Amino acid sequence: MRFKTMKLCLAWTLSLLPVALAERHTHIEASESSIKVLFEEVKQDWKLVAFVLPKEENSQALGKEWKTLLKNEKRINLSSLDCSANVTLCKQTFDVHSFPTIRLFEPSSRTSYRRFRGPKTAEAIADFYWRSIRPAVALVNEQNITEFQTGNNVAVVMHFGSAAPLREELRQEFISLANSYYGRSPITGVSFGIAEYADAEGKDKLEIECVNNFEDIRRSIGASEMLKGSTIEMLKRFVDECTAPLIPELTIRNELVFYQTGKSIVRYFVPPSDERKAYVKEMRLLAKKYQEYLHFVTVDAHKYSDGARAMGLTEGVTGLVVQQTSNGAVYPYRRNIPISAASVESFLVDIIQGREKPWNPQEQTGKEAHGHDEL
Ligand SMILES: *[C@@H]1O[C@H](CO)[C@@H](O)[C@H](O)[C@H]1NC(C)=O
Ligand SMILES: *[C@@H]1O[C@H](CO)[C@@H](O)[C@H](O)[C@H]1NC(C)=O
Ligand SMILES: *[C@@H]1O[C@H](CO)[C@@H](O)[C@H](O)[C@H]1NC(C)=O
User: Fold this and answer.
1) Residue 331: DSSP 8-state
2) Which CATH architecture has domain 2-132?
3) 139 alpha carbon – ligand 3 mean position (Å)
């Protein structure tokens, strides 16, 4: 038998799976014939394949995640290939050089796969899977364009009119842009579409349109602007501007971006909850108004409680603080009036006009200032 049943692969933690879950999963020992069968399988459907050495610790750790995947992701087909039977074969056939390795095979007549890079957790692997199988660019028509534009967080549609074949170069640039967004996991929820129909008046308009349902932004640019200068740069800038959240969440990973612009930062520390959403909604207009000078951001008050303390706020609860990046001065909001767009704006105006004194950590009795904290 080429395929070992689950009961036989005791070395990998998957052996403990209930039978029902095992259906979407095959465990194969590497041999020329078993790989042939695997090739046939991957032609039919997307399939995640783990290349493992079941006796090794790292492969066993992945086994646990694989089990979680199988349990949580009912629509993902999985295989594990035990390479210990013939390591050379795995290396030669799949270009696998370390274990465990994860590949996502595409359903196609020729064998083609995507490499998984990143932390080998069930969550990250599932995220990679769903991002990978979504087509980068959808085709939209008159009947479903509205649904496309309202049903996605952010929808970017390129209208080619019916003259699409004449605009092949532009089309390729748009597709490659969509593909580049694709791999960036923080920007989930941006969908790209292509429309190829003449508009109601029968005109072949060339236009790119972006609808950002989170930020309530709707923008478009037409042919004259699109075709001047570097198209790909223009497309990229247009999409970046439309997709970037007006009030993003500040984390260790992205904070540098904000410092580099030299704008002052208005941080709102908030525990993970709907309060963040309410704040973003409340501040949207204000953030837009001061966009040129200020970054409005939210910060997870639990994760970065040290940062709140370092800026004169109480740890773990909601609080607002303005930081001038030019000189490092911080202004924690300590007024008795609740935080709202109006109260924050008057606070900002007082800071700008020098009526508000920056916070001095030394004034705090017995509390150390954590001046080195970034957030
Ligand atoms: C994927 O799993 C489903 C069961 O969820 C199964 O019906 C289907 O045949 C599997 N496809 C492949 C190629 O293994
Ligand atoms: C491993 O696979 C290679 C390539 O197919 C083959 O030449 C070799 O005999 C196999 N080794 C074993 C131990 O099966
Ligand atoms: C819109 O409809 C067309 C034609 O039926 C279809 O090919 C396309 O995939 C649909 N697009 C979306 C985003 O549903």
Assistant:
1) E
2) 3-Layer(aba) Sandwich (3.40)
3) 6
- Tell me, rounded to whole angstroms, the distance of Cα 101 from its chain centroid: 22
Residues within 6 Å of ligand 1 by CB: 23-24, 41, 44-45, 77
Mutation test of ligand 2: which of 82, 86, 87 has the most ligand atoms closer than 8 Å to its C-beta?
86
**What is the DSSP track for 186-211?**
TSTTEEEEEE-S--TTS----EEEEE
Residue matched to tokens 């967080």: 153
103 three-class SS:
strand
| CA 46 to ligand 2 centroid distance, Å | 27
Ligand 1 nearest atom to the CA of residue 44, by list position: 13
pLDDT tens-digit profile of 155-204? 999 998 876 666 788 888 888 888 777 655 444 568 899 998 887 776 77
24: CA distance to ligand 1 center in Å?
A: 6
Atom of ligand 1 nearest to the CA of 24: 2
The model's pTM:
0.50
Question: For residue 46, which ligand has an atom nearest its CA?
Answer: 1
Report CA(86)–ligand 2 centroid distance (Å). Answer: 6
CATH architecture entry for 255-363: 3-Layer(aba) Sandwich (3.40)
Nearest CA to ligand 2 atom 4: 89
Superfamily of domain 137-243: Glutaredoxin (3.40.30.10)
Question: Is the Cβ–Cβ distance between 69 and 14 less than 8 Å?
Answer: no
Q: If you count DSSP H runs as helices and E runs as strands, how many of each does the chain have, helices first?
A: 13, 16
Quick: pLDDT tens for 295-352. Answer: 999 999 999 999 999 999 999 999 999 999 888 899 999 999 999 999 999 999 999 9
Give me the amino acid identity at 15.
Answer: S
Whether 128 and 167 have beta carbons less than 8 Å apart is answered as no
Distance from residue 208's CA to the centre of ligand 3 (Å): 18
* Domain range list for the chain: 2-132, 137-243, 255-363
